[in-house]
Specification:
Blueprint (H helix, E strand, L loop, with lengths): L6 H12 L5 E3 L2 H9 L4 E3 L5
Helix pairs in contact: 1-2
Length: 49
C-alpha cells in the first residue's frame, strides 16, 4: 500500500508510536494518513499567525 509519505513523516509517526503518545499533532495530510493507519489519536495544528 502506498500513501505518499516522506521519510521525516514516517520518523515523526514512529517516534509517537514508540513513546506511546496519547495524542498526535499533525502538520500535513501525509502525516495524518500515516498516523491514522498507526491508530494514533490525531489533533490538527493551528496555522501560525
Amino acid at each position: 500500500m502506498k500513501i505518499g509519505t516522506r521519510t521525516l513523516d514516517v520518523m515523526y509517526v514512529a517516534c509517537a508510536c514508540e513513546i506511546q503518545a496519547d495524542r498526535f499533532l499533525f502538520f500535513d495530510e501525509r502525516q495524518l494518513s500515516l498516523a491514522k493507519l498507526s491508530s494514533l489519536r490525531v489533533l490538527k495544528s493551528s496555522p501560525r499567525r
